[in-house]
Structures are given as C-alpha cells and as structure tokens.
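Let us practice reading a record.
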Amino acid sequence: MSDIKLIVLGSPGAGKSALIVRFLTGRYISEYASNSECVYTKQMNVDGRLTGLEIYDPCSQIRPK
C-alpha cells in the first residue's frame, strides 16, 4: 500500500475545510468555523492500488505576532 500526504493551504475563510469534507464524504458544509488543526484519513484506490490518503487542514485563525 502506498501513502499520499496532502496539505491544503489558503486564506482564512477560503473554504479549505469545506472542500476537504466534500471530497471525503460528498457532503457540502455551508458554514464551517475551524479553530483547530485537523488531519483526515481515507483509503482509496489510485491506479488500481489501495492507497492511504492523509489530508492536513491547518488552523485558519490568524495567530498574534
């Protein structure tokens, strides 16, 4: 089994979490407040091979300097 690791980057409120959840579950989230980092995992077939997919969704909050 192969592994694929992804990180989804973008501006706060751009829809990163909604896009990830839509990809993994087929559901659309119209409102989503993310203030914690999440790692989503799924096994899927890629080119006929069972592949472990890990998607990292970083916290969207702007951290003080």
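A brief commentary: The chain has a mean pLDDT of 83.
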